[in-house]
Each structure stands twice: as C-alpha cells, then as structure tokens.
Amino acid sequence: MPKLTAAAPPARGPAAGGRLLLPVMDEPAPTSSSLALLALRCPRCHEGHLFLHPATNLTGFTDMPAYCPVCGQSFEPEPGFYFGAMYISFGFAVGVFFAVGVALYFLAGDPDTWVYVVGVSLVTLVCTPLVFRYSRALMLYLFGGTGYDPEWARRVRRE
Ligand SMILES: [Zn+2]
Known about the structure:
Elements: E1 4-5, H1 33-38, E2 64-65, H2 85-107, H3 113-143, H4 152-158
Parallel strand pairs: 1-2
Helix pairs in contact: 2-3
The structure holds zinc ion (ZN).
Pfam family, one: DUF983
InterPro entries: DUF983
Keywords: Membrane, Transmembrane, Transmembrane helix
C-alpha cells in the first residue's frame, strides 16, 4: 500500500510571520491544467509536486505528501480515495497491451506468442511507475473536487 506522509499542512502562524511558507519554485507553474497534470503538480496551485520522489526511485515512487507543500490542498480528499485509480490504471494497462501487441505484429512480423507475452510483460513492468502516478493524478484532477485557482498565491501572500 503506498503511503501518504503524515506531514501537517504547510506551516502558518507566528513563526512563519502569519504567512504560508512557500518553497522556492524550481520552474514556473503551468497555467494549463493539462500541462500541470502531465507535470504531476497540485490541481489547485499547479506548483506543488504530487509525489515526493522521481518515478525512477523504485522504492519511493508511490510516496505522496498528505498535503500540497505549497498551498495546503489535501492530496487524499477522503479515505480510500485512490481505489478508483485502479480502474484508470487498468485503462492504461489495456492501452499498453494494445500498443505493444500492434507494434510487435507490424514491426516484428507477427512473432511467436511467447514474444508477445514477454514484450507486453516487460513494457508493462517498465511503465508501472508512470501508470501508477498518472492514474492517481487523473483521479485527483477528475474527482478531487478542486480546480486551478490562480489567485491562491496572491491571496496567501497578502495575508
Ligand atoms: Zn497546491
């Protein structure tokens, strides 16, 4: 079971000067929700990263912060929220099966069945971190109950 870190929402209060502590951004936030989804950013601010580690980190690619480190948006709106991401993941897996099957058929000249099995298995295994992360991100963007709010940063910084 992937773990959500039990970190509190971003600090606010006297120590933070009453402001939300905003980390230094490594790149500008995409204004398009599609681009923010592709970049695996928070659906509300498009700045905070949805995952703590890169997809190549085989032991940590599933770890998400409980809240957006930038705007405090919850990344798990309700318990068990990401069970629905399994259906999205299944859709991605069918796409991978189909793409690899068609590619082998046309590029390798309809090889033996074992080649299909090995090819599909290898590509599915390699794509697992991406499928997992984009399934969760899609679930959060589609059913998380929040949308892009470009004004949030200005409001928070004025407080
Ligand atoms: Zn955010």
